[in-house]
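Project outcomes to date are best conveyed with an example. Our students and postdoctoral researchers have been running inverse folding experiments weekly, and each run begins with a structure described purely in C-alpha coordinates. The record below, which covers 178 residues, was selected by the lab manager from last quarter's runs and is presented without edits.
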Protein backbone atom coordinates (compact mmCIF):
# COMPACT_ATOMS: atom_id res chain seq x y z
CA UNK A 1 0.00 0.00 0.00
CA UNK A 2 1.41 3.36 -0.95
CA UNK A 3 0.87 6.39 1.19
CA UNK A 4 -0.82 9.32 -0.50
CA UNK A 5 0.61 12.77 -0.16
CA UNK A 6 -0.96 14.65 2.74
CA UNK A 7 -3.29 17.38 1.56
CA UNK A 8 -3.33 20.90 2.85
CA UNK A 9 -6.06 21.84 5.33
CA UNK A 10 -9.35 22.61 3.63
CA UNK A 11 -11.49 25.71 3.95
CA UNK A 12 -15.15 25.00 3.19
CA UNK A 13 -17.36 27.77 1.87
CA UNK A 14 -21.13 27.29 1.98
CA UNK A 15 -23.84 29.47 0.46
CA UNK A 16 -27.42 28.55 1.44
CA UNK A 17 -30.22 29.06 -1.07
CA UNK A 18 -33.97 28.51 -1.14
CA UNK A 19 -33.31 25.06 -2.66
CA UNK A 20 -30.40 23.90 -0.48
CA UNK A 21 -26.81 25.14 -0.66
CA UNK A 22 -23.76 25.46 -2.84
CA UNK A 23 -20.36 24.58 -1.44
CA UNK A 24 -16.71 24.62 -2.38
CA UNK A 25 -13.61 23.45 -0.52
CA UNK A 26 -10.25 25.10 -1.12
CA UNK A 27 -6.78 23.82 -0.22
CA UNK A 28 -5.45 27.35 -0.48
CA UNK A 29 -6.08 30.58 -2.36
CA UNK A 30 -7.32 29.78 -5.87
CA UNK A 31 -6.79 26.02 -5.31
CA UNK A 32 -10.25 24.40 -5.36
CA UNK A 33 -10.33 20.85 -4.02
CA UNK A 34 -14.00 19.84 -4.44
CA UNK A 35 -17.37 21.52 -4.93
CA UNK A 36 -21.04 20.82 -5.42
CA UNK A 37 -24.68 21.80 -5.13
CA UNK A 38 -27.09 20.28 -2.64
CA UNK A 39 -30.82 20.46 -3.34
CA UNK A 40 -33.40 19.27 -0.84
CA UNK A 41 -37.17 19.19 -0.52
CA UNK A 42 -39.46 18.95 2.47
CA UNK A 43 -37.78 19.75 5.79
CA UNK A 44 -35.12 21.88 4.12
CA UNK A 45 -33.13 23.02 7.16
CA UNK A 46 -32.94 19.57 8.77
CA UNK A 47 -31.97 17.92 5.48
CA UNK A 48 -29.41 20.59 4.65
CA UNK A 49 -27.83 20.21 8.07
CA UNK A 50 -27.59 16.42 7.64
CA UNK A 51 -25.99 16.91 4.22
CA UNK A 52 -23.53 19.41 5.69
CA UNK A 53 -22.61 16.98 8.48
CA UNK A 54 -21.85 14.28 5.90
CA UNK A 55 -19.86 16.76 3.82
CA UNK A 56 -17.79 17.81 6.84
CA UNK A 57 -17.23 14.17 7.75
CA UNK A 58 -16.03 13.39 4.21
CA UNK A 59 -13.85 16.46 3.65
CA UNK A 60 -12.59 17.10 7.19
CA UNK A 61 -12.17 20.87 6.66
CA UNK A 62 -10.49 23.13 9.20
CA UNK A 63 -12.76 26.12 8.64
CA UNK A 64 -16.35 26.76 7.58
CA UNK A 65 -16.97 30.12 5.89
CA UNK A 66 -20.38 31.74 5.34
CA UNK A 67 -21.73 35.03 4.08
CA UNK A 68 -23.38 37.14 6.80
CA UNK A 69 -26.94 36.06 7.50
CA UNK A 70 -28.19 38.04 10.48
CA UNK A 71 -30.73 40.81 9.81
CA UNK A 72 -28.44 43.79 10.49
CA UNK A 73 -25.86 42.44 8.00
CA UNK A 74 -28.11 40.71 5.49
CA UNK A 75 -31.51 40.53 3.86
CA UNK A 76 -31.59 36.72 4.13
CA UNK A 77 -34.91 35.05 5.00
CA UNK A 78 -35.48 33.92 8.58
CA UNK A 79 -35.34 30.24 7.52
CA UNK A 80 -31.96 30.76 5.88
CA UNK A 81 -30.68 32.62 8.97
CA UNK A 82 -31.78 29.68 11.16
CA UNK A 83 -30.07 27.28 8.74
CA UNK A 84 -26.84 29.29 8.89
CA UNK A 85 -26.92 29.33 12.71
CA UNK A 86 -27.34 25.56 12.59
CA UNK A 87 -24.36 25.27 10.24
CA UNK A 88 -22.20 27.33 12.59
CA UNK A 89 -23.33 25.14 15.50
CA UNK A 90 -22.36 21.98 13.60
CA UNK A 91 -18.97 23.48 12.74
CA UNK A 92 -18.25 24.41 16.35
CA UNK A 93 -19.51 21.03 17.56
CA UNK A 94 -16.96 19.34 15.29
CA UNK A 95 -14.13 21.62 16.35
CA UNK A 96 -14.02 23.66 13.15
CA UNK A 97 -13.32 27.35 13.01
CA UNK A 98 -16.17 29.36 11.55
CA UNK A 99 -15.89 32.69 9.77
CA UNK A 100 -18.62 35.01 8.55
CA UNK A 101 -18.13 37.86 6.07
CA UNK A 102 -20.68 40.46 5.04
CA UNK A 103 -21.23 41.93 1.60
CA UNK A 104 -19.08 44.96 2.46
CA UNK A 105 -16.03 42.73 3.09
CA UNK A 106 -16.68 40.70 -0.06
CA UNK A 107 -17.08 43.85 -2.16
CA UNK A 108 -13.93 45.32 -0.58
CA UNK A 109 -12.02 42.17 -1.51
CA UNK A 110 -13.15 42.19 -5.14
CA UNK A 111 -13.54 45.95 -5.63
CA UNK A 112 -9.90 46.62 -6.57
CA UNK A 113 -10.34 44.40 -9.67
CA UNK A 114 -13.54 46.21 -10.64
CA UNK A 115 -16.09 43.70 -9.35
CA UNK A 116 -18.99 44.90 -7.20
CA UNK A 117 -22.13 42.97 -8.18
CA UNK A 118 -22.63 39.22 -7.63
CA UNK A 119 -22.31 38.65 -11.39
CA UNK A 120 -19.08 40.66 -11.65
CA UNK A 121 -17.63 38.85 -8.63
CA UNK A 122 -18.66 35.49 -10.12
CA UNK A 123 -16.88 36.42 -13.36
CA UNK A 124 -13.67 37.21 -11.46
CA UNK A 125 -13.98 33.92 -9.56
CA UNK A 126 -14.49 32.03 -12.83
CA UNK A 127 -11.36 33.59 -14.35
CA UNK A 128 -9.29 32.63 -11.31
CA UNK A 129 -10.70 29.25 -10.29
CA UNK A 130 -10.29 27.10 -13.37
CA UNK A 131 -12.67 24.31 -12.33
CA UNK A 132 -15.55 26.80 -12.13
CA UNK A 133 -14.95 28.51 -15.50
CA UNK A 134 -17.36 26.36 -17.47
CA UNK A 135 -20.03 26.63 -14.77
CA UNK A 136 -20.44 30.42 -14.82
CA UNK A 137 -24.12 31.25 -15.30
CA UNK A 138 -25.20 33.88 -17.80
CA UNK A 139 -26.12 37.27 -16.43
CA UNK A 140 -29.55 37.10 -14.83
CA UNK A 141 -32.39 39.01 -16.46
CA UNK A 142 -34.59 41.07 -14.10
CA UNK A 143 -37.50 38.62 -14.44
CA UNK A 144 -35.35 35.52 -13.80
CA UNK A 145 -34.45 33.95 -10.50
CA UNK A 146 -30.80 33.24 -9.72
CA UNK A 147 -29.27 30.29 -11.54
CA UNK A 148 -28.62 27.58 -8.95
CA UNK A 149 -24.95 27.50 -9.97
CA UNK A 150 -24.51 31.04 -8.64
CA UNK A 151 -24.36 29.47 -5.15
CA UNK A 152 -21.00 27.89 -6.12
CA UNK A 153 -19.60 31.30 -7.02
CA UNK A 154 -20.99 32.96 -3.89
CA UNK A 155 -19.43 30.21 -1.76
CA UNK A 156 -16.12 30.63 -3.60
CA UNK A 157 -16.23 34.43 -3.20
CA UNK A 158 -16.68 34.20 0.55
CA UNK A 159 -13.76 31.72 0.83
CA UNK A 160 -11.53 33.99 -1.27
CA UNK A 161 -12.54 36.87 0.99
CA UNK A 162 -11.56 34.73 3.97
CA UNK A 163 -8.15 34.05 2.45
CA UNK A 164 -7.75 37.74 1.67
CA UNK A 165 -8.32 38.73 5.28
CA UNK A 166 -6.66 35.74 6.97
CA UNK A 167 -4.15 34.15 4.64
CA UNK A 168 -3.03 37.45 3.14
CA UNK A 169 -4.04 36.59 -0.42
CA UNK A 170 -2.67 39.45 -2.48
CA UNK A 171 -5.08 41.19 -4.80
CA UNK A 172 -2.44 40.79 -7.48
CA UNK A 173 -3.29 37.07 -7.47
CA UNK A 174 -6.70 37.90 -8.91
CA UNK A 175 -6.58 38.60 -12.62
CA UNK A 176 -7.94 41.93 -13.79
CA UNK A 177 -11.68 41.96 -14.32
CA UNK A 178 -11.20 43.71 -17.69
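After processing, the design step wrote out the following sequence:
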Amino acid sequence: MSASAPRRPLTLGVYPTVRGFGWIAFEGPLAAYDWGLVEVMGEKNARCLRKLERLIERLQPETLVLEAFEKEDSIRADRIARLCRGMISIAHGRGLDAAIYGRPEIELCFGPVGARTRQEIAEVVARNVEVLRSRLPNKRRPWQSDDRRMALFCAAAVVLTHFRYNAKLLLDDLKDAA
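The chain is about 40% helix and 20% strand. Residues 150-166 form the longest helix (17 residues). The training component of this project remains on track.
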